[in-house]
Write a structure and sequence with these properties.
There is one protein chain. This protein has 265 residues and is of the alpha+beta class. The chain contains nine helices and four strands. β3 and β4 form a beta hairpin.
Length: 265
């Protein structure tokens, strides 16, 4: 019943704003005058003068005449631009049907629990790195790795570079922005407190010691409530739009080529 009511409302909204008694009558109603005045006020922050109002009416009549003549000539058929615009307007109307909907506390809690991972804190890592160069032999990498794990000062191992020697509690986007995409993930399974490598970056090869990998805090609903409500509303909009589309689709029989079966959904 709700979906049916929404479709009825959309159908009414799509009706012409003029009260047409026949195809050759153009009625400039009070509703039309109010709409033209509101549009003028929105653009110019004042009401139109009588002369300006007459110009708006003349423009409306000209537009109505040309639109009706174009429709009579079927100019709207097979026009990709017009079809896209109509689809956009229908999509907007379907999405507007759920605007203002508010979840109950129980609905919000259920939605939050089902999507809790989405709101969890981002995984972070603290790490130190020693740059070995754009190219490095396995023997040189092994000697440098052994020296670091024996307690050598990282500043005395490897090659100088402008990259930071350490990052503290950095999320993936920071690590990858510093060393290249995928660097964060490449050391994510590495044990903490031990030098390992070589690890490849966008600049060459590194030895890396992960010093800390704090556990991402589990969020509480109150901490992310505004975002959860926003996501719930988007989900509700999508669900209602899909139901409305399926209800509209049920009114049609879809005939596919012979290679496909005829379907109605």
């Amino acid at each position: 019943m709700i979906v049916g009511g929404l479709i009825f409302g959309i159908s009414a909204a799509l009706q012409p704003q003029t009260s047409e008694k026949s195809d050759n009558i153009i009625e400039v109603s009070d509703v039309t005058i109010d709409r033209l005045t509101a549009q003028f006020d929105a653009a110019w922050k004042r009401d139109p003068t009588p002369e300006e109002m007459q110009g708006l009416i003349d423009t409306f009549i000209r537009e109505e005449v040309l639109v009706r003549e174009a429709l009579a000539l079927s100019m709207d058929q097979a026009d990709a631009v017009i079809r896209r615009r109509l689809v956009q307007k229908m999509t907007f109307l379907m999405e507007s049907a759920s605007s203002g909907a508010q979840p109950s506390d129980a609905e919000l809690q259920t939605f939050f629990e089902a999507n809790k991972d989405t709101y969890a804190g981002k995984q972070k890592q603290s790490l130190e790195q020693v740059y070995l160069g754009a190219q490095v032999s396995q023997d040189d990498a092994s000697r440098a790795l052994a020296a670091l794990n024996d307690g050598a000062d990282p500043l005395t191992v490897g090659q100088p570079s402008l990259m930071p020697g350490a990052l503290t509690r950095a999320p993936a986007q920071v690590v990858d922005a510093t060393f290249g995409r995928g660097f964060f993930a490449s050391v994510l399974s590495q044990p903490t407190g031990v030098w390992e490598g070589p690890v490849r970056s966008g600049y060459g090869y590194h030895l890396v010691r992960v010093t800390e990998r704090p556990v991402a805090a589990e969020p509480a609903l109150d901490d992310v409530k505004e975002k959860v409500i926003e996501d719930w509303a988007q989900q509700a909009t999508d669900d209602i739009s899909k139901k409305m589309y399926q209800s509209m689709l049920a009114n049609f029989e879809i005939n596919l080529p012979d290679t496909q079966e005829n379907v109605t959904q």
